[in-house]
Amino acid sequence: MIKQKKSLGRKLKAYLPLYLMMVPGAVYLIINNYIPMAGISIAFEQFNYSKGMWGSPFIGLKNFEFLFKTKDAWIITRNTILYNVAFIVLGTVFAIAVAVLLNEIHSSRAKKLYQTTILVPFLISIVVVSYLVYAFLSSDSGFINKTLLPALGKEPISWYTSAQYWPFILILVNIWKGLGYNCIIYYATLVGIDRGYYEAAVIDGANRWQQILHITLPALKPTIITLTLMAIGKIFLFRFRPVLSGTYEFRPPVGCNQHHRYLCLPRTHVSEQYQHGFGCRRLPVANWILVGTGGEFRGQKSSAQKMHCFKGGTKNGR
Fold it and tell me: Is the pTM of this model over 0.85?
């Protein structure tokens, strides 16, 4: 027992610098991610602003019963699935495409310039992004309504009161903002690919597209799986409230009346908890599908044996 304590003490002492490095991140996670989780209790209470979160009476699942009696539950589920499918699929496709293009640039100065330019939107606060979007879409002074549409002979559009445009706007803003981060990760993976595979493919007659299809994409497969799982884990974090701030109009929850006053709390508390739970349930399923069907990139014995990247489409037997 004494030996075990000494061994544990030695390990703690050996890794003490690493534990100290971990402390700031752990404190941040506790303060920013775990302590606010106490607010989940609001969804299960007859919330009263005068009594506060701890003084409001507990009513169990009645708020959720109210939610599922309206059409909001279906709308939340549908929007969560469709928006995140678009975010993940289109974001991955564009990030890989840009990473491949960066990998084809030979000038180191131009490559650094493009990397910096692409990464800047990711570093911008979503609040700043909302102001940029407003600068483009404002009905009174927006660039599109005041400059672009008049030049094309079109009538101004009230973007913030027209719901049909916002699925495309949100998808565009999401891709623009997150492209740089994902692109840099994919690019770092591409840099680590052994150039011998490409040289062997060229000898076997593979063109550039065939090299991308049979070497680059298989090499990116583990990274794609990892980033996809991370994205699925964050599907319930809606990051565009500031962007939508100009569209918000207060309206009382559906079905609120004098006989159901205890249900007239802000619907976001209940709907967000449902969305959180729905997203958490999908993460293990996606993990099983992606990891179960995915594989790691393993070096080919010969580009001629595995890729079929040859002129004329036949093996040459080498």
Answer: no
